[in-house]
Amino acid sequence: MERLYLYDTTLRDGQQTQGVQFSTTEKIQIAEMLDQLGLDYIEGGWPGANPTDSEFFENAPKTRAKMTAFGMTKRTGRSAENDDVLAQVMNANTSAVCLVGKSSAFHVSDALGITKAENTANIAASFSHITGQDREALFDAEHFFDGYKADPDYSLETLHAAMEAGARWVVLCDTNGGTLPNEIHEITKAVIASGISGENVAIHTHDDTANAVACSLAAIDAGARQIQGTLNGLGERCGNANLTTLIPILLLKEPYASKFETGVTIENLQTLTHISRTLDDILNRVPLRQAPFVGSSAFAHKAGLHASAILKNPSTYEHIEPHIVGNERVIPMSNQAGQSNLRKRLSDAGLSVKKGDPALGFLLDEIKEREAQGYSYDTAQASFELLARKALGQLPTFFEVKRYKVTVERRKNKYDKMISLSEAVVVLKVDGEKKLSVSESMDDTGSDRGPVNALSKALAKDLGQYQEMIDDMRLVDFKVRITQGGTEAVTRVIIDSADSKGNRWSTVGASPNIVDASFEALLDAIQWKLIRDTSEKVHK
Ligand SMILES: CC(=O)SCCNC(=O)CCNC(=O)[C@H](O)C(C)(C)COP(=O)(O)OP(=O)(O)OC[C@H]1O[C@@H](n2cnc3c(N)ncnc32)[C@H](O)[C@@H]1OP(=O)(O)O
Ligand SMILES: CC(=O)C(=O)O
């Protein structure tokens, strides 16, 4: 088996994603996750470029992976030893150093404004400086593919200059992300034919044509032996090659699985989905459902025909088993579903119904009818379960909603500034007793959080004997969608809730009135939680 090296740049190129700004603590957490996964190199950032990156290297965790500091080649008119930017990179004292340098003649003249000979000399001097201090050196050959197409001799000259100065790796960068896999393959082959061993060639691609993963594989096919990329494909503009996709491909798909060994083991691959979602959690982003391998839809089988076959043999519609990457199979309910989807979803919810039971047909019709009205049970598993329980006569009644009201007022505060104030009143019958709860939506900072927030607080304020069970519940996501155009518009609200036991559940409400749709989804969220907690009590 040949060794293929994995280089992660989530903490550097990933941080160049618009809207992404890691704190030092977050960088440390991500570096630890990458190390446990089995990456060979972790590029931690650019020491000296900003306080967070400098602080990260001062406190970098001890990793098995080679911690790598990133910087740029020395500037013209000063020696490598006297270049203050390079000095800060070296002062991070990492065992590996990666410097970006120009490998395109166009960039040398137009971006740096120096001669080709000066640029080559800068590359040579910078790499001699790094290797002279016994550091492993990587040359990020910026704009290599575009440069090669315009002036191949010069682009190759820059790579050879770095190699002759002792670089361990030349990294062929498709910086603008516009090169397609066939060209990546051809040009990588040309680099190797020029006398640089594939053992010293790395690939760094961007996803501007949605080909970054394919381009990385094309370079490996041509002989490169290191892949650079990021978790969840973060990175400048459209992102970098997505390691969350590439790693399972390399471990599970041919010809890579039989030919190469990486630092990631099959056991560690099972942590991939968790790692991907933890990164999204850190970034406060909703995970991309359709992400290959790790997305929550990656193994979701919505169509009735698919679900029916999957229940007989999962390999009918799955290219791998979901647990291999730590993901799970989902058989959602929707207007595309048949009784197979339904029975699987019911058994997941602990409700067993025999094949052919007339309740199945009734429930399926009910779901399709409600979906036509604007509901969506595809993701709202908890609302689906409540609907199913009702149809099967297994829905307990915990309380009854007598009425509710929401008001939104605009008024001046004591500083004469106009503010909004939302207030909700909910009347319930619990334990045979009527309870009236009033709540405002003001948060600790004095800002109005809106009518739905007020409603949610009022609904969850006094549930009598059940109050304790919902105290650890929190609303984690609230999505609103208009599902039909024109005067027929219906608002669909999907609410994601979570509790301290690690449960996370989705509920749906639909109505022409957003407050009613929200209330319905909130009510379902509370009912689902009460069913879970009361059945746990019974089983204890
Ligand atoms: C393709 C990539 O993703 S490479 C990674 C790019 N990452 C970043 O740029 C993020 C971190 N960068 C920074 O914080 C800042 O740009 C710094 C601290 C590095 C430099 O800041 P400044 O000194 O203010 O320079 P500024 O960013 O305006 O311009 C970059 C300078 O580096 C020069 N430069 C660019 N690449 C190279 C190189 N490979 N070798 C030498 N000099 C270079 C440019 O010509 C420019 O110099 P000039 O102002 O004399 O024309
Ligand atoms: C170095 C780098 O990030 C690039 O060329 O894309």
From TrEMBL:
This is Citramalate synthase. The lineage of its organism: Bacteria, Pseudomonadati, Pseudomonadota, Alphaproteobacteria, Rhodobacterales. It is an enzyme of class 2 (transferase). Pfam families: HCS_D2 (PF22617), HMGL-like (PF00682), LeuA_dimer (PF08502). NCBIfam families: citramal_synth. It comes from Planktotalea frisia. SMART domains: LeuA_dimer. One of its GO terms (biological process) is isoleucine biosynthetic process. One of its GO terms (molecular function) is 2-isopropylmalate synthase activity. It catalyses: pyruvate + acetyl-CoA + H2O = (3R)-citramalate + CoA + H(+). Keywords: Acyltransferase, Amino-acid biosynthesis, Branched-chain amino acid biosynthesis, Isoleucine biosynthesis, Transferase. Residues 4-270 form the Pyruvate carboxyltransferase domain. Belongs to the alpha-IPM synthase/homocitrate synthase family. The keyword Acyltransferase applies. Pathway: Amino-acid biosynthesis; L-isoleucine biosynthesis; 2-oxobutanoate from pyruvate: step 1/3. Its EC number is 2.3.3.21.
